[in-house]
Amino acid sequence: MYKSKKINLFLAVCFLSAVVFVTSSCGNEKTGRNLITSEEVERRPVNLFGPMEKSNPDASNKARSAFDLTIGMAEKKLGINVEYRTYTAENYEEKTYDDVSLNRVRNNMDDLYLLNPDTIQILGEEGELLDLSVLENSKNLREVVKIANTVDGKLVAIPQEVVAHGLFVNKDLFDKYNLKLPETPEDLLECCKVFKENGYETPIGANRWWLENFVFAQAYADLYNGGNTEAEIEALNTGKSKYSDYMRQGFEYLKKLSDLGYIDAETAYTYEAIEGEGPDFLAQKTPIVMAYWGAANTETAYGKPDFELQVIGFPSKLGQMPVVSMTGYGISAEAEHMEDAINTLDILLSDEALEVYSRTNKVISPSNNVEVECIPALKPLSDKIKEGVYVLGSNAGMRVEQWGNTCLIVRDLLKGATVSECMAKFDKLQEESLKK
């Protein structure tokens, strides 16, 4: 499979707004920093593999604290101790988080796992993950969560939050030039033209990870919002339809943005998310960037700009379109501590726990019963999602993994590949998936 060896960034993105981690600071299965008391040692263990350690009780990071608070709820109610087993590249000889996750699940080394979309799909197809429909609280899930994490009819992973990506725009600059916020791809081109004519060298700040959101918004607007989703995905999975036919218009649009100088393809290829284009956006040198929901809540990202921030969906034929992606928690199908693992995850996904988690981090809950008031900047994106208008950037029900593969093929485009060459790679991926 044509997939990234650096796909760990997907977890990093999601967990800047969720379970934040710093990959250089975690240790491989170390417990010394977990501050386990003698009382806790006597409790029944549940082993959790993920990219984060248990926070020190005095930790100030809200996202980590929110996760630990919900873990604490499970520990108290069940009389267990959740053992954090953590990942770092150096401890695994530079193997990626995905590679390590696959190995650990296949060898039944833990009970609970935090997984990326591509590993959810692979392990679900292999039958390595428990069907989480057995959880009492699975009945409360939003439809988008079920769709994204169902493999061969089984719900194999569930997140603590839904991650929505959108365009972050400097509303002050749009008002200055009498521009309406773009609804369609053509609208965005016109806005970029005006900005370019008024001295903004690169109207859209881009990085090498998130340009695929433009592709998803255009490729799958009809698929996810046309009332025929299951049939269209089945046609893709059986080869009756081609992924390249969906993707082509998005890639052609990205090439046009690049050819017109509205994004800097060469620079975007070298930029990490937020770190690259972020400073110019905050300095009002770039009117538009793209990021995830939590970045608008994070003071270290875009949470406190010196201008009016608005977060909107990506332009599509159906208007502004949020792109939704998610990591998820899965349970090994052969978990050593199966009953406690099931009960632990059920508590983490209870409305009570999700209320704590979502309100602390100001994120979208996977539960239909938990709604959190968002900041004004996020209201346009929030309204669309509440209406059920979105596309999925990760969908375990598609035989060809979406997020990582599309990201890499977009990077090929940034390096000079033609649209036809990029589409040939999608065709090859589909051919390989049909042989399985």
Descriptive overview:
The chain is an alpha/beta fold and 436 residues long. It has helices spanning 8-16, 38-41, 62-78, 97-106, 117-126, 143-148, 171-176, 185-197, 212-219, 221-225, 229-238, 243-259, 265-270, 278-282, 338-348, 351-361, 379-386, 403-414, 419-435, and strands at residues 44-50, 80-86, 112-115, 150-151, 154-155, 163-170, 288-292, 309-312, 323-325, 328-331, 391-392. Strands 6, 7, 8, 9 and 11 form a five-stranded mixed beta sheet that branches. β4 and β5 (154-155) form a beta hairpin. The model is unreliable at 1-9 and 12-40 (pLDDT under 50).
Strand runs, count? 11
Number of helices: 19
Class computed from helices, strands and strand pairing? alpha/beta
Averaging pLDDT over every residue, what do you get? Answer: 87
Order of helices and strands: HHEHEHEHHEEEHHHHHHHHEEEEHHHEHH
* Main sheet specs: 5 strands, mixed
Strand content: 5-15%
Helix content: 40-55%
Shape: globular
Distance between the termini: 11 Å
Rounded radius of gyration (Å)? 21 Å
In terms of per-residue confidence, which ranges show pLDDT below 50 for 5 or more consecutive residues?
1-9, 12-40
Q: What are the main properties of this structure?
A:
19 helices, alpha/beta, 5-stranded mixed β-sheet, globular, 436 residues, 11 strands
